[in-house]
Hints:
By secondary structure, the protein is an alpha/beta fold. The protein contains seven helices and 14 strands. The chain has a single domain, classed as Vaccinia Virus protein VP39 (Rossmann fold, 3-Layer(aba) Sandwich), CATH 3.40.50. The chain has helices spanning 2-26, 36-42, 67-78, 87-98, 119-126, 185-196, 226-231; strands at 49-52, 63-66, 105-109, 130-135, 139-142, 147-150, 160-166, 197-206, 213-216, 219-221, 235-240, 258-263, 266-271, 282-286. It is globular. It starts with a helix and ends with a strand. 36% of the residues are buried.
Amino acid sequence: MIKRHRGLYRRVKAILARIQNVQCRLQNKPPACIPRRLRREFSMNGRSEILYGYADGSQSKPLVYDSRQIDAVCARIAARELGHYGGIDAWLYAALDRHPIKGQQVAIMGSADQGYGPWYECICLYYQGQPTTIDYNPIAFSDPRIRFVKAPVVHTHLAFDAAFSISSFEHDGLGRYGDPLDPNADLKAMRSMKQLIKKGGIMFLSVPLGKDKVVFNLHRIYGRVRLPLLLQGWTVADSFGFEDALLDRDTGFGWAPTVLVRGRNGTAETLLHPEYPEYGPVWVLRHD
């Protein structure tokens, strides 16, 4: 019964996305539906399911951070608090404890405010790294501890010892943030990081894990087909929170793997990791 209703809901969402896409074209908003000419590539020839959700992040307001805000966020991180992505941050803390970045130049790929301020920039500062945020959205840091470079970064002289990419590349090429549609933009982003990170440098990467799918235009979820392509060319030096079995679990439209639990009132779905509402392991990748 659950599977039947789930399938009906997904078909209805696909129909609504096509209707919404007409309105998006009229209002010059990001597309709500994958063009027919790109569906095969986005689905990897049918190996990745396509679902539909929608968000318009193309008109983001410029972010402004001052020293007071940055100090406040750093204090929360010193207390080992978790930000928007919950337990993913706990895994990142563990990764940084084992792979220190003290004194290193660190690229922060995208500034994930989410109501928490410059969270990953401040994690970098707490671990005594020197952060440079790279983002499409203009950001003003009135604090010399954090630098900003506007994306895209092409043919640059910049060279970093390390990088953070936490919930970033899975959005690339889906148009949500006004970027052009590209079925392989995430893979291209991973390759381009090798131009930013020095040989022997590392990247702390987190992306959603589960059965392969594209939830257009929100994000990709990486399973047995797409994940190896994403990590291709990098040496996996370490990982935190990774569970191989979760590559086969259907996370629905979001990130959270669920499990069916039989109770007194029948069978219901519950989160496999309630403490990790958005499940994305942290990999430590080395550029050899």
